[in-house]
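Proteins fold. Shown next:

***
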Amino acid sequence: MLDVFKKKGLFDRLKAGLAKTRDILLTDVDDLVLGEKRIDQALFDELEETLIRADIGPAFTYELIEEMKGQVKRKELSRADLLKGILREAMKGILTGQETALRLPSEGICAVMVVGVNGTGKTTTIGKIAYELKNRGERVLLVAADTFRAAAIEQLEAWSNRAGVPLIKQRPNADPASVVFDAIQAAKAGKGRILLVDTAGRLHTKLNLMEELKKMKRIVTRELPDRPQEVLLVVDATTGQNGLLQAKMFKEEVGVTGIVLTKLDGTAKGGIVIRIAKELGIPIRYIGVGEGLEDLQPFDGNAFVEALFGAEG
């Protein structure tokens, strides 16, 4: 019974976090399709504009509208109010294939590098993931490889204390790769099993900083051969299309294996979730819908769509 209440509580937080996106996207869609509306090209043009404005993206929007037109032509679709249901199921079709959890082996050391540009909530995300994993009984080790900002090390240290997990750090401006090396040696000595590596906020246009990420990744590969590696990219949902461009760059440069999409509660452009899943095919590991510890949730595509459409959990 407690699990049922916890699940309901998580869903309610998700639903509340998506309120801005729901108000903009679905209010506009309802205005378009409810009542005595004709299904014609003008309606499809307005629907396309609405979806693009919510940052759902042109690829998904084009395929969706083409499918709707096909159903009208085949006389499978005769009422405009049914378009909303088609939109809902199309979103589920995209997102339920992109909801894989972190690849954590049942035993042995593994590393999770967390990357992204400044201001996305990267260090806070790491702290919340550490808290979740610790509560699941995992032995977590935080790694302060963002050595360029003393404040970043201090922030991660605060999360280390809050989550009750050890931290590996060096002095400010130390070589980030050497911090990662030290952390792996500490893990091999029994200090932890899952390494959560905080990295400096990277401007995605600065390729020299990308090279530092690649160096850290090479250290992990060399020291932990044949172990699963995660490269989590933290994307701020409020940046909309810029978040997609960041994801493309990081995917090409360092091989992103998963996305954490933060600040969904602060934007009407939650449709970026669909766009990332559709255009990049990168699994979405977590989404952030608030400031609380439990507001960073493992991504559930079905729950996301139900919460977006205001359904009951």
About this structure: Strands lie at 110-115, 140-145, 167-168, 194-199, 229-236, 258-262, 284-288, 296-298.
